[in-house]
What we know:
Blueprint: E1 7-11, E2 27-31, H1 35-38, E3 44-51, E4 62-65, H2 67-70, E5 76-86, E6 97-98, H3 101-115
Antiparallel strand pairs: 1-2, 1-6, 2-3, 3-5, 4-5
Amino acid sequence: MAIKRGEIYFVDLNPVKGRETGGTNPRPVLVLSIDTINNSPLVVTVVIGTKGENITKDYPTNVRVPPLASGLPKETVFLCFQIRSLDPSRFPAKAAGRLSGKLLETVENKVRYCLGL
């Protein structure tokens, strides 16, 4: 299986601790790490998403994505302050969707904002 940057997967994030995002699983995650890392025996870095209906206000740390832009069945909000590195074994065989172009660039910029880069 080749996990690619920009792909969206539904992944089980449990177990979690404290304020880490978990909850109802599986959750949508957007792959941010470069393909060289994704295809090596390391971890895959992702931004965690949630259903759009769960986030009623738009914050400068989030990116709201409509279903047509992601291929997912519902509007998704990617929480750019919720970055995790996951073992590839957590990922299903097939991606559920994909972000590219300006939307992926927007997520990248929000992650930079969250990290002060």
